[in-house]
Structure formats: C-alpha cells, structure tokens
Design goal:
With 221 residues, this protein is an alpha+beta fold. It is built from seven helices and four strands. It has a four-stranded antiparallel sheet, with no helix packed on it.
C-alpha cells in the first residue's frame, strides 16, 4: 500500500514543511508552463499563425510539463491532473487571445442584425442567442455574434461589433470589459489551478533516498 500510494501521489519524503527550493521549483514549472501556453497562443493570434493561435502549440507545452513531472518522479495521479488542466488551458486560450488582439487594435463599427437564432435548450431552459449580422456595406459577416444579442433583438437592429482590421481574428460583439487584461481574466482559474497542482506534484515528488534497484539473480559459472 505504501508503494502504491507513493506511485499514485508521490513519495513526499520530508518532515514538516517542504523545502523552500522544492516549492520554488514547482512554482517555476507551473508558472512557466501556463505562461508558455498563453503567450504562444496570443502571439499566434497577433501574427496570424494558425498552429499557435489554435492552441496546438499550447498542447505541446502542456504535454512537456507533464513529461517533466514524470521525470522528477511526481505521482501519476497528479501528473494526470496537471495534463488535464494544461489541455483545458490550451483549449480556452484561443478565445482569450482573440480578445487580447481585439482589445489592442480592434475597431468598433455598427452592424445590422439580419436574423436571430437560439435562445432555448433541450431541457426547456434559456440558452444563448446568436445574431447573424451584416456590415455597413451589406456584406454578411462569417460568424454569428452573441455578445449584445439578446431576447429582444430583432432583424434590422444595430449591433456594435469589434473587428480586427488585419483580419487575423474573427469579429465579435462589443463586451463591457474591452481591455486585454479583461480578455485574459477568464484564464486565471485554469492557470491558477495548473500552477497549484504543479507545485503539489513537485513537492510530493521529493525522495530522501534513491530506491534500491530490482534484484537480479546472476548465475556464475
């Protein structure tokens, strides 16, 4: 049972509080992993690189963090949790990155609502409304807008839309918080959880002694 617990959750062979350098190592690993996931996605959205903007590079960094924890001897359960949190952060980062780009160089224009969809769910609840809109020249936008699209919105109404003049991120409705920090705020929970579990994984990986090698019977002639 002790060996199983050590394999699943890490040996954690220390008495009292964990060594400060071990906590620092865990913080460094978690913060670096979360930062690389977010920064590469934002950079891809700014430059128009699909591989970076879609979060594929973020998935690689999440996998790299999990591999690092395996190499330091972290518990398998904690490695799995870190991997899941890293993947979730990488999946949520593209929307936040697009918000950062629109906050930095986006332009707001008035669009005309052409149709309204949604509003209901399978269980009879209230869902999100989606508006199809056209720009001032009558050209339909390729995406449906949900920010600002409400139950009382009707075709012909004006809807404020922010778009990227370089066309590297899709347009969206104007949000209340249009700052870059506001766009990244939605990632704080995933990033914080990733850093916290990474610290726990590294701390619990501490081993006072190297486990003895497997005994191998040697037959001498």
């Amino acid at each position: 049972m002790a060996h199983l617990r050590s394999t699943v959750w890490g040996p954690a062979e220390f008495v009292g509080l964990p060594p400060w350098w071990l906590v620092g190592e865990g913080l460094l690993a978690g913060v670096l992993g979360a930062t690389l996931i977010v920064v590469t996605t934002v950079f891809g959205a700014r430059t128009g690189s699909p591989v970076l903007a879609d979060g594929e590079a973020g998935l690689i960094f999440a996998l790299a963090l999990a591999v690092y924890l395996v190499l330091v001897g972290a518990g398998r359960a904690l490695v799995g949790i870190v991997a899941v949190l890293g993947v979730c952060l990488a999946f949520h980062a593209p929307q936040a990155a697009a918000g950062v780009v629109l906050a930095e160089r986006g332009r707001v224009e008035s669009a005309v609502v052409t149709s309204v969809h949604g509003g209901g769910t399978a269980d009879g609840g209230h869902g999100r409304y989606l508006c199809e809109v056209a720009d001032r020249n009558g050209v339909p936008l390729r995406v449906r807008i949900w920010r600002g699209c409400e139950q009382n919105t009707r075709p012909g109404d004006a809807l404020a839309v922010v778009y990227d003049p370089r066309g590297m991120v899709p347009p969206r409705g104007v949000d209340q918080d249009t700052s870059a920090l506001g766009a990244l705020r939605g990632l704080s929970g995933w990033a914080g959880a990733l850093v916290a579990v990474s610290v726990v994984a590294v701390v619990r990986s501490h081993r006072l002694s190297v486990p003895p090698p497997d005994r191998v019977s040697v037959v001498r002639g």
